[in-house]
């Protein structure tokens, strides 16, 4: 097996730096034999702090990824990189310049503006509290107040999906499906367009459940992971989804982000302006 190539990344931001870090990680996901070394410099919002960062960059010769919006800090980094012949990606300046050109408005130059404690922020906190309160069908009344209701057998990503969608300010309740369990009457009162049925492949679910039992130090070969039992559960879920007439997504081999995107597209919420 070939040794991995080490590549250094300087993540420079006048806020927390998550935008730049996520962009780098998205690019690195396409490479198998790269070992990234991250140097993170959050809250770089003064010339003195930037001077220290640039001195380190001169010594380390990294790829620079920056999301600076305060004063002329972004320009300084770009000029420094050009002089030192370093690769530098300024992620925000070109976008802000084009927005300014089209809108006629100058950017505020406010670091961390996306994290501002406004109404949208507190709505997101409320949505996350809602997801926790109405996880696993704890209180059926939550189905009537939810923006989205997720249904699915155990280990079809209901809870992580609920929390992920809560970060989009959506109130999500979920219900685990068990063939012998009663379906709350509130489910039948919810608009079918708000209900998402989650399913998966038998072999994938069997593997997930076996791994879960092993992680708990338990015997993996139980009714919980039995192939016939899983098939019966998925068949029960399919019959319920058909009866409700809801949208169904197979979560096998899909990430949480991919499944959430399908849900948002189905509900017409794939554009941020809509919610």
UniProtKB/TrEMBL annotation:
GO terms for molecular function: transferase activity. Coiled coil: none annotated. It is an enzyme of class 2 (transferase). The keyword Kinase applies. Keywords: Kinase, Nucleotide-binding, Pyruvate, Serine/threonine-protein kinase, Transferase. It catalyses: N(tele)-phospho-L-histidyl/L-threonyl-[pyruvate, phosphate dikinase] + ADP = N(tele)-phospho-L-histidyl/O-phospho-L-threonyl-[pyruvate, phosphate dikinase] + AMP + H(+); N(tele)-phospho-L-histidyl/O-phospho-L-threonyl-[pyruvate, phosphate dikinase] + phosphate + H(+) = N(tele)-phospho-L-histidyl/L-threonyl-[pyruvate, phosphate dikinase] + diphosphate. It holds the Pfam family Kinase-PPPase. ADP binds at residues 152-159. InterPro entries: Kinase-pyrophosphorylase, PPDK_reg. It comes from the Bacteria. Belongs to the pyruvate, phosphate/water dikinase regulatory protein family. PDRP subfamily. Bifunctional serine/threonine kinase and phosphorylase involved in the regulation of the pyruvate, phosphate dikinase (PPDK) by catalyzing its phosphorylation/dephosphorylation. PANTHER family: PYRUVATE, PHOSPHATE DIKINASE REGULATORY PROTEIN 1, CHLOROPLASTIC. This is Putative pyruvate, phosphate dikinase regulatory protein. It comes from Loigolactobacillus jiayinensis. The lineage of its organism: Bacteria, Bacillati, Bacillota, Bacilli, Lactobacillales.
